[in-house]
Amino acid sequence: MNVALFLPCYVDQLAPDVAWATLRVLERAGCQVDYDPDQGCCGQPFLNRGALREARALASRHLRCFAGAAAVVSPSSSCVATVRRRFGELGVSGAHESGPRTFELSEFLVRVLGKTQLGARFPYRVAMLQSCHGLRELGLGTPSERAGGELAPSPLESLLRAVEDLALVSVERPDECCGFGGAFSVTHPTLSARIGRARLRAMADAGAQYVTGTDASCLLHLDGIRRREGFGPRAIHLAEILANGASVPELAS
Amino acid sequence: MTTSFDQRALATLPSRGELAQHDAAVWNLRLRRDAAAAEVPDWEALRERAAALKAFTLDHLDELLIGFEEKARAAGAHVHWATDATALCRIVTELLSARGARRVVKSKSMLTEECGLNPHLEARGIEVIDTDLGERIVQLAEEKPSHLIVPAIHKTRREIGALFHRHMGTPEGEDDPERLTRFARADLRRRFLAADAGISGVNFAVAETGSIVIVSNEGNVDLGTSLPTLHIACLGIEKLVPALADLPVFLRLLARSATGQPISAYTSVLTGPRAGGELHIVLVDNGRSALLSNETQRGALACIRCGACLNTCPVYRRAGGHAYGSVIPGPIGSVLGPALGGAAGAELPHASTLCGSCSAVCPVKIDLHGQLLAWRGERYRPPPAERLLSLGAALALRWPVLRGLARAALRLLWPLLARRHSRNPAEAWLAARELPPLPKHSFRAQWKQRERGRE
Q1: Predicted ipTM?
Q2: Residue A253 has pLDDT above 50, yes or no
Q3: What is the CA radius of gyration of chain B?
């Protein structure tokens, strides 16, 4: 299957390893991956602040850039949620065709390709961060608010359960927000950090050595707090765990 | 770029201890709701049903209101219409003055908070006693409620003990909740018996029968509306439900979502005045018609004030209700804020991470986080610096040459950005976190290099 890689701006600049890992995982899953270095921002930060004109322009540009792709895959659930859930509301032409072809990485692997076993090994205790936009806007799992009804399994969890020697720890309030919230993290730094610290504390109490998830932005925020506060699990993107294969990284000090 | 909301949170929950206590107390309500919702086999279907009933009500509000008025009058109630807060205050004052009422007992009503009824009456020499225990605590402390259902959740038992000692003469140092409640109850009982009038809020108004429905757990509503001869009930025009048969849907959702109870301790359906009494129903608009005409935001009028969105909100729990500076705090307060006015209204839609837990927990399925996002676009008034930054960034992201320059500049400036300094634009991030280290090359650059190597 031909796949176009859709990278969040901060992954491109700040976390190129996550991008390479995503590429390797997709290739290992049998995909032909293409990347257009001309791609820009999907407009989420602008939309998030209310700058609709700028958001619309960037959304149009994004759709033009990926118009020809059979499937667009991104290591960021919030960017995918923007394309799938918000482009239509912005009234950008092409939004309704593009939404269903755009996937978050774990969603694509499990729900489209039907793969959970990718031959990875990661001998650590890991906490899952269910990023909110993935969980509640893309339906990547069943949020804890839901009472009864059919449970949607989380592709993130399915993938992690298939990783050799990886121990998933259960964290109190498993799907509480990490406090990042995009612009919120800088417009409300006190609250953003209060929430983030509490999440890190809960994960540390559960014995997690690493925290992983589908959104590099939430992970950058949590890791920034960990480095400031000096406690809590290290952040690692799902793609990096899956891309490891049988070669396992040393637990960084 | 730090907003005053964030700074107010520092003042409302100043220490880590108070923060942890508030967060845990409020989260406990969310857990009780989860357990109560799980007991209902068709919870999600019940939510769907409630949402559909509310949508129908809002679509037919004009007819339903007229129908309600007719039926309520036929049952012997007087019906008044108040276009805004001023009108409500005037109507209530006139009703009280005409009967020489000086002492009023009031049961919980967010609407009268919204309209500033208490201070209005007090300024005219009328004594108003809030009879809901939490409301009473907040009233004695001369504060505002910080939660829809648990108005005094921000106060510790020690603070409440000291307050009661000062105002009710309870023994110094007494902070046992049960004993304090008994004191408050005895004090309130005297006031109920001496009251000239009772003022109440309303949870639901039934168009089919002209009935008003009030739920409570303390029995104060029933005393306040049946002991004095005059009962004034105040409700927002959105409180209507079409028929009596629709009530169970909402009563079940409300009690379970608010406190985790299967049903509230007291549910009073009042149709017309009590024997020998007078019932006045005041229907209040105060911005609601305007909200109804806003296609994107009208859904907020479906709110049944259960407080579940507050309990689940990671921001509310760590900010405290007073940080909102609005009558109604939490996600629903931030959605209503820009519509119902108030100084803090404009910034409130930004006081959210948009995690969507509020929308997922809401018993009437209001798209709370979607509406918060929509307000941000509808009321986009960024400070000039942000406006400039936003325009610049959007241009750079659209034009490859500018984009390349911007990226290069950012990479050059990164070491400076990582340094703590009050004039550093990244300070808001750095206040609580480290910046991630900058990798030597971006993915884009590495990719291009690899592609060149392949040619």
Answers
A1: 0.95
A2: no
A3: 26
